[in-house]
Amino acid sequence: MSSLAPPPRDIKTIAEVEKSLIFSSFTADTAWEVGNALRSRLLDFPDPAVINISLANSNQLLFHSVTRSGTQPDNDSWVARKRATVLRWGCSTWYMHNKLKGDEALFAAKYMLGERAGQYAIHGGGFPIRVKGVEGIIGVIVVSGLKQEQDHQVVVETLENYINNRS
């Protein structure tokens, strides 16, 4: 089994990492390449996971795959909740988790979510897709199935490798 570096927990460093992972462009081909790179990397882990890449301006799905048998419909619920968090706050779910110290009641109260709190998740694995010269995020990558810090870090390490090898 392969390992991942532990992700940072201070929000300043998390934000810096997110801002450093900018694509020069992002197309359906990019989503396919990143999705396959994530799937290959996730095969190093025994737990099944779901990978989802979609555009921000719609529910247009560009990539969706599982790593192995054993995923559950609940994984797709987590994908939707993590995606919603990234779209609403424009940052990773790991950032939100650490900003609020994992306190879901505080999260719901701070943002006055009420009964809608269950539509969002502040667990690692949701990550914004940014493109140089484009304001805001253009899409969302979500991994669900490992421990939340691993869900986050596998996205970060895969994106670092992908982006750095194309510069």
UniProtKB/TrEMBL annotation:
Signal peptide: none annotated. InterPro entries: PduO/GlcC-like, PduO/GlcC-like_sf, YBR137W-like. PANTHER family: PTHR28255, UPF0303 PROTEIN YBR137W. This is DUF336-domain-containing protein. It comes from Lentinula lateritia.
